[in-house]
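Sequence in, structure out.
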Amino acid sequence: QVELEESGGGLVQPGGSLRLSCASSGFTLDDYAITWFRQAPRKEREVLLCISNSADNIDYLDDVKGRFTISRDAAKNTVYLQMNSLQPEDTAVYYCATDRRMRRCPLSPTFYRISDYNRTASWGQGTQVTVSS
């Protein structure tokens, strides 16, 4: 059962922007912390940003700070990842996820690696972002 669905990926030129969406038809995203990840070919998955149920944000990855922002639209039951100044190294599959035991965002990205988050969270299928001229 797919509970989260990402959309908005595509091909964009360097310096361009995309806005990814994470939607759910199964539960209210506003009640939980939502996290965006990405995984590039032959690389480990990276945790990017998290938004809590009270809309507090945590940016985990230095490479995207100042370029990527996370936000919510409760009326649309959607969480967004706005990506600006995209570079070829941003090429990856982007995923949103949530563990419905969590309303607040972990302070450290290490949490996602050492906890059982991967096993207990609901994940989307991912959306491909390709940055190329």
